[in-house]
Amino acid sequence: MATDESKTGSNDRFDTLEFILYRHSPFGVMGTTAVIFLIVYGLYILIAQMTQSPPFLYQTDAGVWTTHKVSWIAFVLSLIQTAAIAFAGSSSGRWETDTEDLAQAVGPAGQQAVRNLSLGAPVEWRASYHRLFWFGFVFGIVFNVVMMVTEGTAPLDYVSSIGLWFLIVSPILFGTGFRAGMDVSRRSREIKDLIAQHLAVDLFHLERLNAFGRIGLRAARSWMIMAAILLLFMLNPEQLWITIPTIAATAAGGVFILTSALNPVHRKICAAKAAELDRIHEEMARVRDRALAGEDAASSALAGLTDYEIWVAQRPEWPLSTGLATRFSLYILLPILPIVGSYLFEKLADQFVTGGPV
Q1: Could you tell me what percentage of the chain is helix, strand and coil, using 3-state DSSP and rounding each to the nearest 5?
Q2: pLDDT band at 9 (very low <50, low <70, confident <90, very high)
Q3: pTM > 0.70: yes or no
Q4: Which residue in 139, 173, 253, 327 has the most C-beta neighbors within 10 A?
Q5: What angle separates helix 240-292 from helix 296-313, to the nearest 10 degrees?
Q6: Domains of the chain: which residue ranges?
Protein backbone atom coordinates (compact mmCIF):
# COMPACT_ATOMS: atom_id res chain seq x y z
CA MET A 1 0.00 0.00 0.00
CA ALA A 2 2.97 2.34 -0.45
CA THR A 3 4.75 3.26 -3.64
CA ASP A 4 8.45 3.54 -4.39
CA GLU A 5 8.19 7.17 -5.47
CA SER A 6 10.95 8.97 -3.56
CA LYS A 7 11.78 12.61 -3.12
CA THR A 8 15.17 13.87 -4.20
CA GLY A 9 17.54 15.48 -1.78
CA SER A 10 19.27 14.51 1.45
CA ASN A 11 15.95 13.71 3.13
CA ASP A 12 14.40 11.20 0.73
CA ARG A 13 10.68 10.61 1.14
CA PHE A 14 8.10 8.31 -0.40
CA ASP A 15 4.38 8.71 -1.02
CA THR A 16 1.72 6.38 0.33
CA LEU A 17 -1.11 5.18 -1.87
CA GLU A 18 -3.58 7.30 0.09
CA PHE A 19 -1.53 10.42 -0.57
CA ILE A 20 -1.32 9.68 -4.30
CA LEU A 21 -5.07 9.05 -4.42
CA TYR A 22 -5.92 12.42 -2.89
CA ARG A 23 -3.25 14.29 -4.87
CA HIS A 24 -4.56 13.07 -8.23
CA SER A 25 -8.28 12.90 -7.45
CA PRO A 26 -10.36 15.42 -9.47
CA PHE A 27 -12.98 15.62 -6.69
CA GLY A 28 -11.02 17.52 -4.04
CA VAL A 29 -10.63 16.43 -0.42
CA MET A 30 -14.32 16.39 0.54
CA GLY A 31 -15.44 14.89 -2.76
CA THR A 32 -12.82 12.15 -2.68
CA THR A 33 -13.72 11.32 0.91
CA ALA A 34 -17.40 11.07 -0.02
CA VAL A 35 -16.61 8.82 -3.00
CA ILE A 36 -14.56 6.48 -0.78
CA PHE A 37 -17.43 6.16 1.68
CA LEU A 38 -19.96 5.55 -1.07
CA ILE A 39 -17.79 2.82 -2.57
CA VAL A 40 -17.20 1.06 0.76
CA TYR A 41 -20.78 1.24 2.06
CA GLY A 42 -22.21 0.84 -1.43
CA LEU A 43 -20.34 -2.47 -1.66
CA TYR A 44 -22.08 -3.55 1.53
CA ILE A 45 -25.52 -2.68 0.13
CA LEU A 46 -24.71 -4.48 -3.12
CA ILE A 47 -23.55 -7.68 -1.38
CA ALA A 48 -26.47 -7.57 1.04
CA GLN A 49 -28.99 -7.30 -1.78
CA MET A 50 -27.26 -9.97 -3.87
CA THR A 51 -26.90 -12.53 -1.08
CA GLN A 52 -30.10 -11.58 0.82
CA SER A 53 -28.32 -12.86 3.92
CA PRO A 54 -29.45 -10.55 5.39
CA PRO A 55 -30.93 -8.10 2.85
CA PHE A 56 -30.26 -4.41 3.27
CA LEU A 57 -33.98 -3.61 3.34
CA TYR A 58 -36.77 -6.09 3.97
CA GLN A 59 -40.43 -6.05 4.92
CA THR A 60 -41.58 -7.56 8.19
CA ASP A 61 -44.79 -9.53 8.64
CA ALA A 62 -46.37 -6.32 9.94
CA GLY A 63 -45.63 -4.58 6.63
CA VAL A 64 -42.80 -2.44 8.08
CA TRP A 65 -39.69 -1.80 5.98
CA THR A 66 -36.60 -2.17 8.12
CA THR A 67 -32.93 -3.13 7.93
CA HIS A 68 -30.78 -5.55 9.88
CA LYS A 69 -28.66 -4.23 12.75
CA VAL A 70 -25.55 -5.35 10.87
CA SER A 71 -26.27 -2.53 8.42
CA TRP A 72 -25.49 -0.05 11.19
CA ILE A 73 -22.28 -1.87 12.07
CA ALA A 74 -21.23 -1.80 8.41
CA PHE A 75 -22.12 1.91 8.24
CA VAL A 76 -19.84 2.73 11.18
CA LEU A 77 -17.02 0.53 9.86
CA SER A 78 -17.32 2.29 6.49
CA LEU A 79 -16.94 5.63 8.25
CA ILE A 80 -13.84 4.36 10.09
CA GLN A 81 -12.32 3.06 6.86
CA THR A 82 -13.04 6.35 5.10
CA ALA A 83 -11.59 8.41 7.96
CA ALA A 84 -8.40 6.30 8.07
CA ILE A 85 -7.79 6.79 4.36
CA ALA A 86 -8.77 10.47 4.45
CA PHE A 87 -6.52 11.37 7.38
CA ALA A 88 -3.52 9.74 5.70
CA GLY A 89 -4.29 10.97 2.19
CA SER A 90 -5.13 14.61 2.89
CA SER A 91 -2.56 15.31 5.61
CA SER A 92 0.06 16.70 3.21
CA GLY A 93 -2.29 19.37 1.90
CA ARG A 94 -3.07 20.48 5.44
CA TRP A 95 0.63 20.88 6.23
CA GLU A 96 1.26 22.88 3.04
CA THR A 97 -1.07 25.66 4.21
CA ASP A 98 1.21 26.31 7.21
CA THR A 99 4.60 25.93 5.53
CA GLU A 100 5.22 29.66 5.08
CA ASP A 101 4.33 30.54 8.68
CA LEU A 102 6.39 27.67 10.04
CA ALA A 103 9.36 28.72 7.91
CA GLN A 104 9.24 32.19 9.48
CA ALA A 105 9.13 30.69 12.97
CA VAL A 106 12.31 28.63 12.60
CA GLY A 107 15.83 29.55 11.69
CA PRO A 108 17.53 28.85 8.35
CA ALA A 109 18.66 25.43 9.57
CA GLY A 110 15.04 24.36 10.02
CA GLN A 111 13.78 25.22 6.53
CA GLN A 112 14.27 21.69 5.16
CA ALA A 113 12.54 20.20 8.19
CA VAL A 114 9.55 22.47 7.54
CA ARG A 115 9.37 21.46 3.88
CA ASN A 116 9.55 17.79 4.86
CA LEU A 117 6.32 18.12 6.85
CA SER A 118 4.31 18.51 3.65
CA LEU A 119 6.13 15.66 1.88
CA GLY A 120 5.77 11.91 2.21
CA ALA A 121 7.22 9.64 4.86
CA PRO A 122 11.01 9.22 5.22
CA VAL A 123 12.31 6.25 3.22
CA GLU A 124 13.69 4.64 6.37
CA TRP A 125 10.08 4.25 7.54
CA ARG A 126 9.05 2.38 4.37
CA ALA A 127 9.59 -1.11 5.80
CA SER A 128 7.70 -0.22 8.98
CA TYR A 129 4.76 1.09 6.94
CA HIS A 130 4.66 -2.13 4.91
CA ARG A 131 4.97 -4.38 7.95
CA LEU A 132 2.26 -2.59 9.91
CA PHE A 133 -0.15 -2.64 6.96
CA TRP A 134 0.29 -6.37 6.39
CA PHE A 135 0.05 -7.04 10.12
CA GLY A 136 -3.31 -5.26 10.13
CA PHE A 137 -4.32 -7.07 6.95
CA VAL A 138 -3.66 -10.49 8.52
CA PHE A 139 -5.37 -9.32 11.70
CA GLY A 140 -8.46 -8.51 9.62
CA ILE A 141 -8.48 -12.02 8.15
CA VAL A 142 -8.11 -13.54 11.62
CA PHE A 143 -11.00 -11.34 12.75
CA ASN A 144 -13.20 -12.94 10.08
CA VAL A 145 -12.06 -16.44 11.05
CA VAL A 146 -12.99 -15.72 14.66
CA MET A 147 -16.39 -14.47 13.51
CA MET A 148 -16.98 -17.71 11.57
CA VAL A 149 -15.92 -19.89 14.51
CA THR A 150 -17.96 -17.87 17.02
CA GLU A 151 -21.10 -18.03 14.90
CA GLY A 152 -20.49 -21.62 13.83
CA THR A 153 -20.65 -20.64 10.14
CA ALA A 154 -18.99 -22.68 7.43
CA PRO A 155 -16.53 -20.73 5.23
CA LEU A 156 -18.66 -21.25 2.10
CA ASP A 157 -21.78 -20.05 3.90
CA TYR A 158 -19.85 -17.07 5.28
CA VAL A 159 -18.71 -15.85 1.85
CA SER A 160 -22.23 -16.46 0.51
CA SER A 161 -23.63 -13.96 3.01
CA ILE A 162 -22.86 -10.43 4.07
CA GLY A 163 -19.76 -11.95 5.64
CA LEU A 164 -18.17 -11.51 2.21
CA TRP A 165 -18.20 -7.73 2.76
CA PHE A 166 -16.44 -8.08 6.11
CA LEU A 167 -13.92 -10.44 4.53
CA ILE A 168 -13.11 -7.83 1.86
CA VAL A 169 -13.19 -4.70 4.01
CA SER A 170 -11.79 -5.81 7.38
CA PRO A 171 -8.20 -6.57 6.23
CA ILE A 172 -7.95 -3.22 4.44
CA LEU A 173 -9.62 -1.46 7.38
CA PHE A 174 -7.17 -2.80 9.95
CA GLY A 175 -4.19 -2.41 7.62
CA THR A 176 -4.84 1.23 6.79
CA GLY A 177 -6.03 1.99 10.32
CA PHE A 178 -2.92 0.65 12.02
CA ARG A 179 -0.65 2.40 9.54
CA ALA A 180 -2.59 5.67 9.86
CA GLY A 181 -1.96 5.56 13.59
CA MET A 182 1.77 5.13 12.99
CA ASP A 183 1.72 7.98 10.47
CA VAL A 184 0.15 10.30 13.04
CA SER A 185 2.80 9.28 15.57
CA ARG A 186 5.61 9.88 13.05
CA ARG A 187 4.37 13.33 12.11
CA SER A 188 3.95 14.23 15.77
CA ARG A 189 7.56 13.24 16.38
CA GLU A 190 8.74 15.33 13.42
CA ILE A 191 6.94 18.44 14.58
CA LYS A 192 8.26 18.03 18.14
CA ASP A 193 11.80 17.65 16.81
CA LEU A 194 11.30 20.79 14.69
CA ILE A 195 10.18 22.73 17.75
CA ALA A 196 12.97 21.44 19.98
CA GLN A 197 15.79 21.97 17.48
CA HIS A 198 14.81 24.96 15.37
CA LEU A 199 11.99 27.05 16.85
CA ALA A 200 13.09 30.62 17.58
CA VAL A 201 10.55 32.62 19.61
CA ASP A 202 10.28 36.31 18.71
CA LEU A 203 8.05 38.02 21.27
CA PHE A 204 7.25 40.73 18.73
CA HIS A 205 5.90 38.18 16.22
CA LEU A 206 4.12 35.55 18.28
CA GLU A 207 1.38 35.45 15.64
CA ARG A 208 3.73 33.37 13.51
CA LEU A 209 3.46 30.62 16.09
CA ASN A 210 -0.29 30.33 15.52
CA ALA A 211 0.62 27.82 12.80
CA PHE A 212 1.47 25.41 15.61
CA GLY A 213 -1.92 26.18 17.11
CA ARG A 214 -3.61 25.21 13.85
CA ILE A 215 -1.57 21.99 13.75
CA GLY A 216 -2.60 21.10 17.29
CA LEU A 217 -6.19 22.00 16.52
CA ARG A 218 -6.23 19.64 13.54
CA ALA A 219 -4.86 16.84 15.71
CA ALA A 220 -7.61 17.44 18.25
CA ARG A 221 -10.23 17.60 15.49
CA SER A 222 -9.06 14.29 14.05
CA TRP A 223 -9.38 12.74 17.51
CA MET A 224 -12.87 14.18 17.92
CA ILE A 225 -14.00 12.92 14.52
CA MET A 226 -12.67 9.39 15.03
CA ALA A 227 -13.99 9.28 18.60
CA ALA A 228 -17.40 10.43 17.39
CA ILE A 229 -17.43 7.64 14.80
CA LEU A 230 -16.43 5.02 17.37
CA LEU A 231 -19.08 6.27 19.77
CA LEU A 232 -21.70 5.30 17.19
CA PHE A 233 -21.12 1.73 18.31
CA MET A 234 -21.97 2.29 21.94
CA LEU A 235 -24.07 5.35 22.59
CA ASN A 236 -27.78 5.16 23.27
CA PRO A 237 -29.60 8.53 23.27
CA GLU A 238 -31.96 7.18 25.93
CA GLN A 239 -29.16 6.28 28.39
CA LEU A 240 -27.85 9.67 29.39
CA TRP A 241 -26.10 8.29 32.49
CA ILE A 242 -23.67 6.56 30.12
CA THR A 243 -23.76 9.05 27.27
CA ILE A 244 -22.88 12.24 29.15
CA PRO A 245 -19.75 10.87 30.93
CA THR A 246 -18.58 9.28 27.67
CA ILE A 247 -18.91 12.56 25.78
CA ALA A 248 -17.17 14.41 28.63
CA ALA A 249 -14.29 11.93 28.53
CA THR A 250 -14.03 12.32 24.76
CA ALA A 251 -13.92 16.12 25.05
CA ALA A 252 -11.26 15.82 27.77
CA GLY A 253 -9.24 13.64 25.40
CA GLY A 254 -9.43 16.36 22.76
CA VAL A 255 -8.24 18.98 25.25
CA PHE A 256 -5.35 16.70 26.26
CA ILE A 257 -4.29 16.15 22.65
CA LEU A 258 -4.43 19.89 21.92
CA THR A 259 -2.44 20.90 24.98
CA SER A 260 0.07 18.08 24.44
CA ALA A 261 0.68 19.27 20.88
CA LEU A 262 1.10 22.89 21.95
CA ASN A 263 3.00 22.34 25.19
CA PRO A 264 6.50 22.30 23.57
CA VAL A 265 5.78 25.70 21.97
CA HIS A 266 4.26 26.94 25.24
CA ARG A 267 7.45 26.06 27.10
CA LYS A 268 9.57 27.84 24.49
CA ILE A 269 7.43 31.00 24.77
CA CYS A 270 7.60 30.92 28.57
CA ALA A 271 11.37 30.52 28.43
CA ALA A 272 11.69 33.43 25.99
CA LYS A 273 9.52 35.63 28.22
CA ALA A 274 11.50 34.68 31.32
CA ALA A 275 14.80 35.45 29.61
CA GLU A 276 13.53 38.81 28.37
CA LEU A 277 12.17 39.72 31.80
CA ASP A 278 15.53 38.86 33.38
CA ARG A 279 17.24 41.15 30.88
CA ILE A 280 14.76 43.93 31.64
CA HIS A 281 15.26 43.56 35.39
CA GLU A 282 19.02 43.80 34.95
CA GLU A 283 18.57 47.04 33.02
CA MET A 284 16.12 48.36 35.60
CA ALA A 285 18.57 47.59 38.40
CA ARG A 286 21.30 49.39 36.47
CA VAL A 287 19.36 52.69 36.16
CA ARG A 288 17.30 52.45 39.36
CA ASP A 289 19.72 54.27 41.68
CA ARG A 290 20.24 57.13 39.22
CA ALA A 291 16.50 57.41 38.67
CA LEU A 292 15.83 57.57 42.41
CA ALA A 293 18.55 60.21 42.67
CA GLY A 294 16.48 62.40 40.35
CA GLU A 295 18.33 61.98 37.06
CA ASP A 296 15.78 62.72 34.33
CA ALA A 297 17.29 60.46 31.67
CA ALA A 298 17.46 57.55 34.10
CA SER A 299 13.86 58.17 35.26
CA SER A 300 12.66 58.19 31.65
CA ALA A 301 14.57 54.96 30.93
CA LEU A 302 13.14 53.29 34.03
CA ALA A 303 9.60 54.28 33.02
CA GLY A 304 10.13 52.88 29.55
CA LEU A 305 11.54 49.66 30.96
CA THR A 306 8.55 49.36 33.27
CA ASP A 307 6.14 49.69 30.35
CA TYR A 308 8.15 47.15 28.38
CA GLU A 309 8.14 44.77 31.37
CA ILE A 310 4.33 44.92 31.52
CA TRP A 311 4.06 44.34 27.77
CA VAL A 312 6.34 41.29 27.90
CA ALA A 313 4.54 39.85 30.92
CA GLN A 314 1.20 40.15 29.12
CA ARG A 315 2.31 38.44 25.92
CA PRO A 316 0.29 35.24 25.30
CA GLU A 317 1.98 32.01 26.28
CA TRP A 318 -0.02 29.64 24.07
CA PRO A 319 0.06 29.75 20.24
CA LEU A 320 -3.71 30.02 19.96
CA SER A 321 -5.57 32.99 18.56
CA THR A 322 -9.08 33.78 19.70
CA GLY A 323 -10.47 32.33 16.47
CA LEU A 324 -8.63 29.04 16.97
CA ALA A 325 -9.86 28.74 20.55
CA THR A 326 -13.43 29.37 19.40
CA ARG A 327 -13.08 26.74 16.69
CA PHE A 328 -11.87 24.17 19.23
CA SER A 329 -14.88 24.86 21.46
CA LEU A 330 -17.07 23.99 18.47
CA TYR A 331 -15.13 20.76 17.84
CA ILE A 332 -16.08 19.62 21.34
CA LEU A 333 -19.65 19.35 20.05
CA LEU A 334 -18.62 16.63 17.56
CA PRO A 335 -19.17 13.74 20.03
CA ILE A 336 -22.83 14.77 20.24
CA LEU A 337 -23.31 13.82 16.60
CA PRO A 338 -23.35 10.05 17.30
CA ILE A 339 -26.45 10.48 19.45
CA VAL A 340 -28.24 12.30 16.66
CA GLY A 341 -26.96 9.77 14.10
CA SER A 342 -28.11 6.77 16.14
CA TYR A 343 -31.52 8.31 16.69
CA LEU A 344 -32.02 9.18 13.02
CA PHE A 345 -30.88 5.75 11.86
CA GLU A 346 -33.33 4.04 14.19
CA LYS A 347 -36.14 6.25 12.91
CA LEU A 348 -35.26 5.60 9.27
CA ALA A 349 -35.06 1.87 9.94
CA ASP A 350 -38.27 1.56 11.96
CA GLN A 351 -40.69 4.20 10.71
CA PHE A 352 -41.26 3.08 7.12
CA VAL A 353 -44.27 0.96 6.16
CA THR A 354 -45.66 -0.15 2.86
CA GLY A 355 -46.57 2.87 0.81
CA GLY A 356 -44.27 5.31 2.60
CA PRO A 357 -43.38 6.64 6.05
CA VAL A 358 -45.93 6.70 8.81
Answers
A1: 75, 5, 15
A2: very low
A3: yes
A4: 173
A5: 170
A6: 2-200
